[in-house]
Amino acid sequence: MPLWIDSEAGRATGGRSTGPWQAHGVSIDTRTIQPGDLFVALQAARDGHDFVAQALAKGAAAALVSRVPDDVAPDAPLLIVDDVLAGLQALGQAGRARMTGKVIAVTGSVGKTSTKEMFRSALSGQGRIHAAEASYNNHWGVPLTLARMPADTDHAVIEIGMSNPGEIAPLAVLARPDAALITTIAPAHIGAFDGLDGIAHEKAAIFQGLVPGGAAIIPTGLTTTPILLDAAQAAGARVLGFGTEGDAALVASDPRSMDTGEVLEVQGRIDGRYLRFTLRSVGPHFALNAIGVLATLSALGADLELAAERLANWTPPAGRGAVEALGALRLIDDAFNANPASMRAGLGTLARLTGTRRVAILGDMLELGQGEVQAHADLARDPAMARIDLVHCAGPLMRHLHDALPPEKRGLWSQSADGLTDRLDEMLRPGDTVLVKGSKGSHVSRVVDALRNTGNMARFTGT
Q1: 150-168 residue pLDDT tens
Q2: Is position 115 annotated in a ligand binding site?
Q3: Which listed residue, 46, 154, 269, 375, has the most CB atoms within 10 A of its CB?
Q4: Which residue segments constitute the domains of the chain, with CATH numbers given?
Q5: Is 66 annotated as ligand-binding?
């Protein structure tokens, strides 16, 4: 069955098709487009209209455009609308309207993508699942995910993010979730907000999109929990809490490493019933995210025992805390992004693992506003630092952590991550367990790329 046909897409967007067509997918990128996709000519860094001819040459079923490009024939299969982004949003809205399954929305300062992937694993075996393959959580990513959603989807998981005030509510209204989960509130993008309370209010706007009688799943025990609770109640939501203590509906307890050091055994409790499951991760913060997933699924009436069992198949997405062996090194690749909360979680994960030495390679945490200097220096006093042997730093902000560290833990510092990639011999030795973490803009992921280089791996074989 096609995902979209010309008449249905035309009604949804108010656009005009130049002829009949049917599409089996939706794409915004000619580098990954598949034959039969509807190409959406968004304008971002470059105007998507410049790539319509290429998309059609690669087998696109049609293109969503606001004008006929000069290098495209007027009778080419096009859906012409006034504004392409508005057209994509309308297509996403129509995709949501025709779907009769359950929609889950996920937001939070930390762990959105990891939690989205946990839902994918937990729901396997319980019908058809739809979720974005990447972190498509912004003004074009959410409608794209909805536009790609098959009508017979049983469960859809929609990740919703923000970097500025006012971004979450319209995306939540577009997604119309049956349940909305907030993973946690932490100082991410805090430079654009008036403190943590401002972030909490923005995240809580996700509840404005809930369907009538929908469920709000919120973390308990935070200073901002009352803000989330007030917003959920104002939306008329059924409220479930999750956490490690108090009267949460679902409580995570006793996450611990097993013999391999790379698996967590977790116990959760809901309505007096206990669930035990394992995660392929050493980070206790992942255990709490998993509890949030189960709390959400309990609100939707899913099979919790099966969901808990299937969570054992989940692994952290690339760059978000996955543990792997590189020669005689053990690498925790957490280089996709960072803020103070996720940085402390990453350091805690490193502290739990064994190795000849525990070594952290850290890049700047960005978008923290006026408190950015202190936030970096304060990491030196994190309890996990007591079990970390050496810290290498990259970036002008991480210089403040470097200076605050005791001399015996102070490794190399470089103005940029590139300054560390050719000094691996000085930084590491066989048997080390290594955490690499920083904001995406710090480019500390280049250290991970250098470590994965075949030549560099050979240096750390331990032979």
Answers
A1: 999 999 999 999 988 999 9
A2: no
A3: 375
A4: 4-84 (3.40.1390.10), 99-313 (3.40.1190.10), 322-459 (3.90.190.20)
A5: no
